[in-house]
């Protein structure tokens, strides 16, 4: 009977299937490919603004904003606004993380 119970247990070494990450891996140079307008839009999306609110602030039609955001997401290799927000947050943390900065010219 113990043999049957052992066969029913899942193999812990097999592991569960991995879920895709919320934000795909994006090389850092993709951010550099964004135009200043797209960078501004990324910040506004990260601030939680809707297309209409962004359009009002930039004096642009809502549809034009949606198209700019769609193009920005494509350049970044992202699919959703949520992924764009996570991307912006990760960039902000990377740029403020003192452990990631290299200060080779500073005296020790």
Key attributes of the depicted protein:
about 110 residues, mainly alpha, globular, Arc Repressor Mutant, subunit A, 6 helices, about 55% helix, single chain
Kindly provide the radius of gyration, computed on alpha-carbon positions and rounded to a whole number of angstroms. 22 Å
Oligomeric state as shown: single chain
Q: Which geometry do the CA atoms define?
A: globular
Percentage of residues in helical conformation: 55-70%
Average of pLDDT: 77
Task: Just name the CATH architecture of the domain at 25-93.
Answer: Orthogonal Bundle
Major sheet summary line: none
Query: What is the total tally of β strands?
Result: 0
Low-confidence stretches: 101-108
Structural class: mainly alpha
CATH topology of the domain at 25-93: Arc Repressor Mutant, subunit A
CATH superfamily of the domain at 25-93: Winged helix-like DNA-binding domain superfamily/Winged helix DNA-binding domain
Count helical runs: 6
CATH class division of the domain at 25-93: Mainly Alpha
**CA(first)-CA(last) distance:** 67 Å
């Amino acid at each position: 009977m113990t043999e049957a119970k052992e066969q029913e247990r899942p193999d812990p070494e097999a592991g569960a299937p991995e879920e895709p990450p919320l934000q795909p891996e994006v090389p850092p140079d993709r951010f550099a490919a964004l135009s200043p307008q797209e960078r501004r839009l990324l910040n506004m999306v990260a601030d939680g603004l809707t297309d209409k609110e962004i359009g009002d602030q930039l004096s642009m039609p809502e549809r034009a904003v949606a198209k700019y955001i769609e193009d920005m997401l494509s350049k970044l290799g992202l699919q959703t606004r949520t992924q764009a927000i996570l991307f912006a947050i990760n960039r902000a943390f990377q740029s403020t993380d003192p452990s990631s900065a290299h200060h080779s010219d500073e005296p020790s």
